[in-house]
């Protein structure tokens, strides 16, 4: 199961990096912010994003010990979204030792 998760999360990480980079080359978010902000679905998507970031941040605060690391990771979550989230989970997946499973991924060490 852990190897399967590593493959899925790595594939999603690569896909999201590709999507963000290709979209950034095609369209400047800062030039289109006023237009995007006027779309109700865009506002709903942002609220959804921040609700998810809040949930993931609570889990990360539970797992991590250093307050500096916690603050740094929250900044990355907010600025990079799913790219930072996927990277965070991938790091923890690759830190698992042989024989460790999902429970070991989710709980404090």
UniProtKB/TrEMBL annotation:
Keyword set, alphabetical order: Membrane, Transmembrane, Transmembrane helix
TM segment ranges: 46-62, 74-94
Domain of life: Bacteria
InterPro entries the UniProt entry points to: DUF1475
Residue runs in coiled coils: none
Entry keyword Coiled coil: no
Pfam families: DUF1475 (PF07343)
Transmembrane helix listed as a keyword: yes
Protein name as annotated: DUF1475 family protein
